[in-house]
Amino acid sequence: MKITVDFEECLKDSPRFRATIEEVEGDVCELESKLDKLVKLCIGMIDAGKAYNAANKQFVNGIRELAQQSAKDEVIESSLTKFAESLQEMINYHTILFDQAQRSIKTQLQTFVKDDLRKFKEAKKQFDKVSEEKENALIKNAQAPRNKQHEVEEATNILTATRKCFRHIVLDYVLQINVLQSKRRSEILKSMLSFMYAHLTFFHQGYDLFSELQPLMKQLGGQLDQLVVDAAKEKRDMEQKHSTIQQKAALQDFSNDDTKLEYNVDADNGIAMEGYLFKRASNAFKTWNRRWFSIQNNQLVYQKKFKDNPTVVVEDLRLCTVKHCEDIERRFCFEVVSPTKSCMMQADSEKLRQAWIKAVQNSIATAFRDKGDSGEKLDRKSSTSTGSLDSGGEPKERSLKGESALQKVLAIPGNACCCDCGQPDPRWASINLGITLCIQCSGIHRSLGVHFSKVRSLTLDSWEPELLKLMCELGNRVINQIYEARREELGARKPQPGDPRHEVEAYIKAKYVDRRFVRRPSDEELRNKVVSLSKEEKRLSSSSDHLPPKAPPPTPKLRPGSHASGQSAAACGKEARRDSLFCPDELDSLFSYFDTSSKLRSMKSADSGIQNSADGSREMLATTPSSNSLADAEAAEAPPVPATLPTASPCKEVVFFEPKEYSPGLQLYWASFSRSLPDMAEALAHGAEVNWVNTEEDKRTPLIMAVHGGSLVTCEFLLQNAVNVNQLDAQGRGPLHHATMLGHTGQVCLFLKRGANQNAADIDEKTPLSIAVEAANADIVTLLRLAKMNEEMREAEGPYNPSGDETYQDIFQDFTHMASNDPDKLNRYQQYDPQRP
């Protein structure tokens, strides 16, 4: 309804004008309410449309994935791809429609409400105010007494001014009302017409799109008829199979046997027998739980759910026995007993109990019969040969994973945010740089290549203790002081969270690949740095906590039984010590396990010394120096060694000589010896070659100097940065030689895990094993022997087991944990006083 206010009528301020104004104000108030509601509904529609588009995009992606999965069926793959493309086009049309709705409805109407209606409200406020002032002026003029001339004049003047102001404001108000009434029609109609044209375009585009798709849809409709016929035939076949199985199950019910169990050692899936059993828990309540048991690969395992990893009850059936249990209240019980524990189980019937007992017994016999096969594994968790490495026979955590590693690494100052962009709460790390990264920066680091950055997850991957210590030695703050030293000087902007990927990638490449922000030291600064690092030798030598273990004095050759008439080991007092972490019984069982590979021994029969070597090392390590000599044990399979062994310091003393030229490689050389990881990282950033050779010092390398420094973490840092673990010095000795000569058991373990060649001989034709035997270091001899045997077994098995034996891996894991977390257990030799008679 069009409402127009007359300008002449407003000057009269008549009741008709007041009624018209009241009607207009009510209409405008209702108009504002309706427009606000329409805008809100439009916003809701747009938001719902965007959510629909997002869900529709996911649905289309699902169609594409289904098409890729059906790549072998050309009809399905091509049809689904075409449908996905058409639906994606419709999503694009919807997006255009919602954008047009936002421009035509939301933007235009909001502008009308905020601008025009706001002006009307402001004009109304002024009109109401001046109306009230005019009313007050009229009342005051009427009340002025006749005999007080000055009050009459004052009231008259106020009334005149107020009327003048009223006429001005009321005319403006009426003008605003008329303009608003005229404009509301054009604004509303223009907005809605634009919206309707958007719909017209949308439906035209959709019609054209599906008109092109219609022939394909008709063709597929004709093919569906044959598919329905095929589906009906398959259904009949399945119903027949269902009936057959149902009859078979009914016969089993009639025979009162719920499950038909058969022992099949040659089963294709490796599972000789499986079924449900009740298992008694080892807790204080002795609760019984029903679990799915199976005998597979000479192990007895169970699982609660199909997706659960099987829990191993007996890890090698050759080590266990099985027996009936009639002394408990429950029926049909039997017990499987291993050297470390026993497991009580209950079958559902006597027939099933007998079947399980017979299956376990057959598996034990089969395991003993096939014990020479290379595929058989003896896990050390249940083996008595390595029980001393675990406390109380309970399995321990071999590597840190998840929140434990995350908490330790993020506790380092600066690591709580991404090293490159500052994103808080990072979950990734570069292990050769020692920094934490967000997920976007970690992807960019991966693209650089492992020669620049090796990325690992802080929550998903397992972390070896030496690698975790390496991360804790460096950190974002230390690395950024090196790689961003000149960033502010060059005016480079550091990325922020949410920056485009290409900007972050350009910055990371400039930082780590081009090393644009690294400050190059002057010759004098480099000289001072090298001299300072070389002086760390005195500080390290003065600290008893950092002294490398001293080599024991020469062990004189003794004939067997020579100690029978001399003093016993007990009489030696403090001089008597245990040479190995393994007791004699453990070593006998351990080496017996490795010797059982008859297939391996037959393949190596051409070298009879290997068999003798294995037996000899077992004999050597199973006895203490008071009853037999390591040198005597080794004499059976190694060339004769000189009667006089090396002195107490078998390695050349590290002394700093003024070099001819100072270089980043020399800084890395001395930083490796002084255990200063920040200085090592700085040297690599300055372009130091990780395999740099000091020609003035017997061609020693940074890794050899790290061995002499006695730090496992320093060696790990160099290994993570692609150092050659087999690079030799002028004496033909590699890092493994030097670690063996110094008695660094943890470093020996680390180098063997990283592929060090233990068969390499120096210029004196001595291998690390012969050096360890001369030094009477039983722990290192054990590691070298086991590594050699594992290598032989891996060569025999070829591609079937490229990683080698699990027992070997577990033993090395234990040595790794001791070297990182409790090194005193491996440094027993440094307590030996070579001056003691």
UniProtKB/TrEMBL annotation:
The keyword Zinc applies. Residues 383-392, 629-644 have a biased composition (Low complexity). Residues 371-382, 530-540 have a biased composition (Basic and acidic residues). PROSITE patterns: ANK_REP_REGION, ANK_REPEAT, ARFGAP, PH_DOMAIN. It is found in: Cell membrane; Endosome membrane. Keywords: ANK repeat, Cell membrane, Coiled coil, Endosome, GTPase activation, Membrane, Metal-binding, Repeat, Zinc, Zinc-finger. GO terms for molecular function: GTPase activator activity; zinc ion binding. GO terms for cellular component: endosome membrane; plasma membrane. It is a peripheral membrane protein. CDD domains: ArfGap_ACAP, BAR_ACAP2, PH_ACAP. Pfam families: Ank_2, ArfGap, BAR_3, PH. The keyword Repeat applies. This is Arf-GAP with coiled-coil, ANK repeat and PH domain-containing protein.
